[in-house]
Amino acid sequence: MEENFEEMFNKSIKDVKLGKTITGKIIDITSKKEIIVDLGYKADGIIPYEEYSFEEGKDPNDEFKIGDIITADVLKNNDGLGNVLLSYKKIKLRTIREEFEKKVKNKEIFKEKVTDINSNGLIVDYNGIRIFIPMSLSCIPKNEDINEYKGKEIEFVVIECDFKNRKVIGSIKQIKDEEKKKLEDNFWKNVEVGKKYEGIVKSISSYGAFIEIENIAQGLLHVSEISWERNADVHKILKENQKINVVIKELDKENKKFKLSSELKGEDPWSKVSEKYNVNDIIQVKIVRFMPFGAFAELEKGVEGLIHISQISEERITKPEEKLKLGQVVNAKIIDMDLENKKIALSIKELEGTSYDPEYADEIAKMSK
């Protein structure tokens, strides 16, 4: 019995098996962007445009020309028109996947555009490979609109690659974390006592301010390094996010801690005390704080003296608040000075009846010269 055409055709391509990878020569690229391939058989192979590339709008004429050799996978022995149906994008995807897995293994950084977004994160297409970047790994601030990232080019690494389960996870956060770690390691390697930096005030408290250096580490600038005043209000001197020049004062590399000093404090007011004041001078002072044993009075910013409870009044008192008030300006006599230990002893008792009076101020000023 004579064989019909279909049977003869099938026998002629019996070596072209489904799923097999074959190589042929391009004999035509049609106006529909189909690639016609000479396989060395009676039937030619055809790669429809949709089996050419995962990239939308890609033109095969930009990659191939007639006479080029091309390798493709067999999808069907007969597409219904006597051609062997082939896929170029499948074999290309395998090649892409192999290259992709190699890059992932080498922890290479990818730079691609965001193709889509959803409430859970970003989606990136890498030559047909769908990569998902969860919000938790995107480094996108909560108050930022995720929709603005569509079409934006981003850098990321792939932290999980499972083609079998179609699970490829990317992370921007890991890059940022690694970059920060390198900067931190470099900072702690080079930081030393006496080194100067420009820092930013990150937080303020009653005892000082925490200053961030190089966006890496924070150190304490104690209130005693900000002002010579004992009761200085740090909030009145510094503001959050203010830039300030600081110097490393103390350093503990092992525990990654440091303390700072600053030129903000200025010259020590005690350095001029010997030029301005002498024992027996009568001066005007302001009461700044009380202790059970007396009251501290401010001569000028950063310079205080003690009025012992026994030197407040001729009357016997049990606490300084009985005769004095915080913020009160009074006349006092310097009865002792210990400049080495920054101590000045004052007496109001020796000037009883000379409590501060504007009309009496000139006389006091003359007496203190």
Description of the structure:
This protein has 369 residues and is α+β, with helices and mostly antiparallel strands. The protein folds into four domains: 5-93, Nucleic acid-binding proteins (OB fold (Dihydrolipoamide Acetyltransferase, E2P), Beta Barrel); 107-175, Nucleic acid-binding proteins (OB fold (Dihydrolipoamide Acetyltransferase, E2P), Beta Barrel); 191-265, Nucleic acid-binding proteins (OB fold (Dihydrolipoamide Acetyltransferase, E2P)); 269-367, Nucleic acid-binding proteins (OB fold (Dihydrolipoamide Acetyltransferase, E2P)), CATH 2.40.50.140. 17% of the residues lie in helices and 38% in strands. It is built from six helices and 20 strands. It has helices at residues 5-12, 88-105, 173-190, 234-237, 273-276, 358-367, and strands spanning 21-29, 35-38, 45-47, 69-76, 84-87, 110-118, 121-126, 129-134, 153-162, 167-171, 196-205, 208-213, 217-222, 243-252, 257-262, 282-291, 294-300, 303-308, 329-338, 343-347. The strands form four sheets. A five-stranded mixed beta barrel has the order 1-2-3-5-4. Strand 2 (35-38) and strand 3 form a beta hairpin. The N and C termini lie far apart (139 Å).
